[in-house]
Amino acid sequence: MQIVKLAQFKTTKRYKIIMKRSCQNYDALFPMVKKIMNDIEKNGDTAIKKYTKKFDGINIDNPKVSTNEIKTAYKKVSKQFLTALNQAISNITAVHQTQLPSSAEKIVKPTPGIKIWKKWQSIERVGLYVPGGKALYPSSVLMNGIPAKIAGCKNISIITPPRKDGTIAPEILVTANMIGIKNIYKIGGIQAIGALTYGTETIPKVDKIVGPGNAYVTVAKMIGLMSGKIAIDSPAGPSENLIIADNIANPKFVTADLMCDIEHGGDSAAILATTSNKLAEEVRRLIKKEINKFSTKNYIKQSIKKYSQIIIANSIKDCITFANDYAPEHIQIMTTNSKAIAKQITNAGSIFIGSYTCKSAGDYATGANHVLPTGGSAKMFSGLSVLDFVRLVEYQTCTKQGLKNIKKTIETFAEVENLPAHKYSCSIRFNQ
C-alpha cells in the first residue's frame, strides 16, 4: 500500500481517484444498466431469467424460495451459527427499537379553529437487497429486515443472488425465517432491482428498495428512483473504511481493520490517515506480511491497487479535515482523546471510537446498522434505520371560524400567485 504526504497528495491525479473511489464508474454503467432495466419493465420474468443465465450462468425456473427449502435449511446450519444469530438479532432489535418514532398524535393549533397533526405510517411494500452469489451475508438480512419489521411494513420481500447450483445458502434462509420474512427470491444484480422496481409475473413490485450492493446494483437503484417507481435508502455501494490513528495506535489492529474492509471485493476502499511515520511504515510492512494468509487476498490486493492509501498528515486536525471531505462509510478513530476527535467528525456513515471497536463488531454484532452511505454520500445520507421504512402523514382540519381567521392570507397569496381558483375555493365558503 502506497504511503503519501497529504499536502503533496492533494495535487495528484490519484487523489481524485481516491476521493471518487468506485463512484467514478457509475456514469459509464448507466447506459447498459438502463437498457437492462427497460427490458425487465417490458418483458418481466422472461428478461429476469435471461439475465440470470447471462450474468450468473444459472437457469431459474421459479425464483421464489419454497416453504420446503426454508424448512430444510434449518438442518444444514450449525448450532454455533444459531447461537450467534440469536445474539445478533437481540442486539440489533434493541438498538432499532429505540428509533421507532412516537405514535402519539400531537395536535398543534396555530390559529383558533385550525388543528394540525401528523402520524407515522409504515411503507407497505419494501424490497430488501441482500448481496450473495460468491459471498454469504446473513448479517445483511438482519440489518435490512429487523428495522423493516419494527416499522410495521406489511409486505417484505428479500431478493438475493443464487449460488451456482441455483439455491440460496441455508444461513440466509434461516436468518430470514427467524425474523419473520418468508418472501425470498433467487435473483441478484441489476435484474433483481428491475424486478422489484417494476414487478414481474412472479416477483411483486415494491415501493422502496434498500440494501447494499455493487456498482451495478447501486446504479440500478438510482435508475429505479429516477423513474419515479420506487424510493431507495442511500447509495450503499462497495465498502469503504477510513482510520484516523496516531502513535498510540496498535499497528496490528490498524492493519487488521484495513484488510477487514477491503476483503469484500476489488472495488472496496481503505484509507489510513495518520500523523505517525512509524505507524505508516509498520502498517505497510504488516499488510505485505499478512495479506497472503487470507482466502480473500485477491480482493484485498485489487482494492489496495485501486482505491486504498496510507496518508501522512501534519496534524490530527488535518486528518479530521480530510476525513470530513472524504465522507466515508466507516471511520475508525484510534488516537489519544478519540472521543473528542469523534465529535469533530461530521460526515460519516458510522463512527467507531477506540482501539477495541473493530469494524467487524459493527458489521455483525453491536446492534448498529451496517447498511451505510458510500462514495461520499455520507455528506447527505444516513445509515439505514427504522425511519427508512416509515413516512410522516399530515392531517389538518379547519372550522368555519378557523378558515375565516386565515381567509385574507389565502386570498392575498392567491392574488400574488395569479391563481384565482385558489381564492375562489376559499371565498365560496362565505358566499352561501
What are the main properties of this structure?
432 residues; alpha/beta; Rossmann fold; 6-stranded parallel β-sheet; 5-stranded parallel β-sheet; 18 helices
Descriptive account of the structure:
- The chain contains 18 helices and 13 strands.
- The strands form 3 sheets. The chain has a 6-stranded parallel sheet, sandwiched between helices. A 5-stranded parallel sheet has the order 5-4-3-6-7, sandwiched between helices. It has a two-stranded antiparallel sheet with strand order 2-13.
- With 432 residues, it is an alpha/beta fold.
- It is 46% helix and 15% strand.
- Helix 11 crosses helix 12.
- The mean pLDDT is 95.
- The chain starts with a strand and ends in a 5-residue tail after the last helix.
- The protein is globular, with a radius of gyration of 25 Å.
- The chain folds into 3 domains: 156 residues, Rossmann fold; 195 residues, Nitrogenase molybdenum iron protein domain (Rossmann fold); 32 residues, no CATH class.
